[in-house]
Specification:
The protein has 25 helices and 7 strands. By secondary structure, it is mainly α. The strands form 2 sheets. A 5-stranded mixed β-sheet has the order 2-1-5-7-6, with no helix packed on it. Strands 3-4 form a two-stranded antiparallel sheet. The N and C termini lie far apart (about 85 Å). The relative contact order is 0.10.
Length: about 525
Amino acid sequence: MLSVDSFLKYLKKLTLKTSHVWLLVSLIVWMVGIGGSDLYAMPALIGLIFLFRDIVINDRPLTYFSTSINHRLVKVLYFLLILVVLAKTLLSLYSFSWHIFDVGSYSNVVFNLSNGLNYNSFLQIPATYDHFTPSLSLFVPLYWIGASVHWLTFAKALSYLSVPLVVYYWLKDKTGSKFRFSLSFLFGLWMLILYKPAVSSSFFEFSPSSLAPPLIILSFLLMEKRRWFLFSLTMLFLLGLKEHMGVILIGYGLFGIFQKNYRTGFTIAAFGFFVTYMMIFQVMPYFRDYQAFGNTQIAPFQDIPGKAIYLVKLLWPLGFLPLLFWRYGILAVPAIGVNLLSGRPGMYSTGFHYDDISSTMLLMSCMLIFIERRTILADWLGNKWLKGVFIIWIFGFLTQLPASPTRKLIYALPKSTHLNLLEDIWNFENKWPNSSLAVQSAIGPHIHRTDMTIMTQQSSGACVPPKINGMSADIILLSPDVGHYMINDFEKCIESLEGNTEYKLLNTFKYLVVYERATN
């Protein structure tokens, strides 16, 4: 049996590049998805052992922060990432990965708006009752060309994909060209691939605030340059994406205050507080006729352990830099605060779209820290004990990696059953273009019309045909082959519809289950 001294001597003899190779292999395995979702952990663990040898036992300096990045390689990889993300965005619709909540619902709102209606068909309420989203009206001309959720989902994908370019433009006057390129690459790498809160938001089907990341960075640049007219136009669009977007202004203001730009900081923060308060507590309640609404659940002291874990998940992949250098991290605090105030666990889970704003602003604060506190960071990492902390950080970071873009693309590939169902839906659309519909969640995004809603199941297991404009839906569309959110027991649902004398099953389609109301 080897003694500890013998083992340490063996480790010292290995070359410096060994840890690099194993960690690179780990990332490649993770990216490609070989052997499932966890196989990458094996080469990662080996790499961490060798890294411990390199920087702790042999006390060698860290070499992971070089600004000498191969520009051509980065551009090629960026181009490939664009292709993967756009392909995944396209195919997700045809593999029935999108649902009524959320992309189908928002697409329906824009479709109805293109027909002069302020209405959400699926929820059967005025669109402004749900969320404040006037900025989506910019998509109306596109829906005049053709109604499709692709307009929204591709806009979201391009929004995220443009972030590294916008960051590169933002940092133009802040640092040298090499470091600027490296930081833009780092921002894009975390935003699009490695940082789970941001990646979860980017791959979520759609939320209006998912259009915000590049405009947040651009508006911050305009604020720094005091281009107030353009800043106001950009913020006007951002404020029209969701009722809580005023937290961006609050973050800008607090950042200005702690950078000792008191006058501008207090002005912007005060205006941000005013806008946020008015939108959440005055404007939206007015649109909702002052009725209670499920999306507004303020419970700051609920599930404190869960919210503490959420903060760790937000900050660990960033090395807790926004917390250590809190005068920069204050930029993201209001956006994070919105999620922490909520009583809905999904909002502080890093698994949905709720971190689109906070993750962007956290990464922005990290860029400012790297530029203005770079020397301090380098000095810290020269300490031997902090090198050990660095290895622990990498281990924790690797355990929080999201699914890679390649694996997401693989999940989005349509199967033969999906394609057959699509053909049935298209044929149905041609034959019944004007009937009122109750549709299954995964079918909803494929159809655009005003008289339609979502088919749901009661706690008893019965699927009761919903009312549309006071009358039962003309047709019910279902399929056992795709997701049926809000229908927990599909067989019981079908059984209840079979027993409903008002509806009859049509045998016109092979893959689409169609029930038509017998009497009109």
